[in-house]
Design a protein that fits this description.
Rossmann fold, six-stranded mixed beta sheet, alpha/beta, five-stranded parallel beta sheet, binds 6-O-phosphono-beta-D-fructofuranose, 4 domains
Length: 544
């Protein structure tokens, strides 16, 4: 269906027209109950969306979109294990990865025995490393773990490993290598001891160029250090949906941990792909992460739309994108531990919903995912926030903070939170010319004041939401990630696209394969375009 033809869409458009003359200052002044009606809380997460350009009548209208798009039907199809990823003929069952009991999704299609058995094997493996009982080829315990993967096989676990480093086992180093650029792997290898290093090759397909080349290089380095191919079996494990390829690589079967084709790469951190994380934080903390996500799954599946965090978050994103015309969304964590959260969300959102063709193969009638970008908020304040405040562009923001510090130092947390709250308030309410004038009066000549005044005005009306967590523990993080996952799903349903395929990443891979041999062999460059040929010629001249 074309959602822009729906009754709900038209009603929302009329609502937008009536609301658009109102500045956030006026919206706050008009409704003293605004914050109560435009905020939700769930399991230690306060979601304040009162600084969005909506009023108390907006959500019921927006929820009409979810109904017209048959969100409930699609949700039940996903949770029921139907092949809603139609272009790849796959079910979408990452929610199974955080469930604690069989059967799921149905008694006849129960994936839980495999899921639970793999989780148990992972726990035993992780405990072996953590306790020092799992020994390397020379009999020394493993002290360093290197996860080799990219995209969903890197971003989620790496983001969480950094977020949860305060609860990670000291003395056990866990590293993440993704880039083809040897400047990532080579310096790391210089710091490692082959006798005490374990490589986890994380790749759903076990064919990804970056991962396979890094894994091969790591294997060569290991063999150079230990001098025996038998060492591979003690120093490599694989996390993959293609176990036979891992075994062919030389990894012993007991060290191959499966995932399944019903887990999308960007939704795979809950699966065996999370093994490096489990080694770092331990099986108990990993179980708490899953439990937090499972609680969010239940909330998503059962709460009424207007009290449902993922649904509300999705609807607000649609309001900003499709009705206010925002083209990007900034993610601004005021929490050092969430340093990698923006890049994790970039894949989750843009690889899922960065599409202009619907599930039915027809062009979408409206814009889909905005550009997701972001950075640690406190650092961003001193870099790009200028544009958010006075650049004249609409950039909705997600502020994310935790009340309690992971590493408390006197005065830091209060100052950090004050800055977080100050930025969203300043962006929303700005500063009028009259306010700026009264601040400047008496401090300079009237002529100087008039010259400076336009620069001191902040238009405000920049919409934002704040996600305030009690603390960044595994359970709350699990819920936070599941919240964004379901937001992505809801938006995909409303836009009428398939959030679970990623055909757009294929072309670049194929072109790279045709260019690679032409770097060494100029004759192979002939069919390539003129720009690529020139780049190759320059490269050949200087590659050394
Ligand atoms: O190229 C994109 C992609 O397929 C992502 O969807 C995926 O997370 C990543 O590459 C890595 O894939 P794999 O886990 O199969 O190596």
């Amino acid at each position: 269906m074309n959602i822009t033809n729906s009754v709900a869409w038209k009603a929302i458009e009329a609502h937008r027209q009536s609301l658009s003359p109102l500045h956030l200052r006026e919206l706050f002044a008009r409704d003293p109950g605004r914050v109560a009606s435009l905020s939700l809380s769930f399991d230690g997460i306060l979601y304040d969306f009162s600084k969005q350009r909506i009023d108390s009548t907006s959500l019921p209208l927006l929820a009409g979109l979810a109904r017209e798009a048959q969100l409930e039907h699609w949700t039940e199809r996903m949770f029921g294990g139907e092949q809603i990823n139609a272009s790849e003929g796959r079910s979408v069952l990452h929610v199974a990865l955080r469930r604690s009991r069989s059967p799921f999704p149905t008694a006849s299609l129960d994936v839980m025995p495999d899921v639970l058995a793999t989780r148990q094997r992972m726990a035993a493996f992780a405990e072996g490393i953590r306790s020092g009982k799992a020994l390397g080829f020379t009999g020394l315990p493993i002290r360093s773990v290197v996860n080799i993967g990219i995209g969903g096989s890197d971003l989620g676990p790496k983001m969480l490993a950094y977020a949860l480093r305060s609860v990670s086992q000291p003395g056990l180093d866990v590293h993440y290598v993704s880039n083809l650029d040897s400047a990532q792997l080579a310096p790391l290898l210089q710091t490692l001891d082959a006798r005490t290093t374990l490589f986890l090759v994380a790749s759903k397909t076990f064919t990804t160029q970056e991962t396979m080349l890094n894994a091969q290089t790591a294997r060569d380095w290991l063999l150079a250090g230990l001098g025996d191919t038998a060492a591979v079996s003690r120093h490599f494990a694989a996390l993959t949906a293609k176990p036979e390829r891992a075994v062919q690589f030389g990894i012993r079967e007991e060290a191959v941990f499966p995932l399944w084709d019903w887990v999308g790469g960007r939704f795979s951190l809950w699966s065996a792909v999370g093994l490096a994380l489990m080694i770092a934080i331990g099986p108990q903390a990993f179980a708490e992460l899953l439990a937090g996500a499972e609680r969010m799954d239940e909330h998503f599946r059962s709460a009424p739309y207007e009290r449902n965090l993922p649904v509300v978050m999705a609807l607000i994103g649609i309001w900003n994108t499709n009705f206010l015309g925002a083209t990007s969304n900034a993610v601004l964590p005021y929490n050092e531990s969430l340093k990698y959260f923006p890049s994790f969300l970039q894949q989750l959102e843009m690889e899922s919903n960065g599409k202009a063709v619907g599930s039915d193969g027809q062009p979408l009638a409206c814009a889909s995912n905005p550009i997701v970008w972001g950075e640690l908020g406190n650092n961003g304040q001193h870099a790009f926030f200028q544009l958010l405040h006075q650049g004249g562009r609409l950039v909705p923001c997600d502020f994310i903070a935790a009340v309690r510090a992971d590493y408390p130092l006197p005065g830091h947390q209060e100052a950090l939170l004050a800055n977080c709250f100050a930025q969203s308030a300043a962006l929303a309410f700005g500063k009028t010319a009259a306010e700026a004038r009264s601040e400047l009066e008496g401090t300079m000549s009237p002529a100087a004041l008039e010259a400076l005044l336009p620069h001191k005005v902040f238009p405000g009306n920049q919409p934002s939401s704040t996600l305030l967590l009690t603390r960044l523990d595994p359970q709350t993080l699990g819920a936070l990630i599941a919240l964004y996952e379901h937001k992505v799903f809801v938006q995909g349903v409303i836009w009428g696209l398939n959030s679970f395929d990623q055909w757009g990443v294929e072309l670049g891979k194929a072109v790279a394969n045709s260019i690679l041999p032409a770097i060494g062999n100029p004759a192979l460059a002939a069919p390539l375009d003129a720009s690529t040929q020139a780049l190759l010629a320059f490269t050949r001249q200087h590659i050394g």
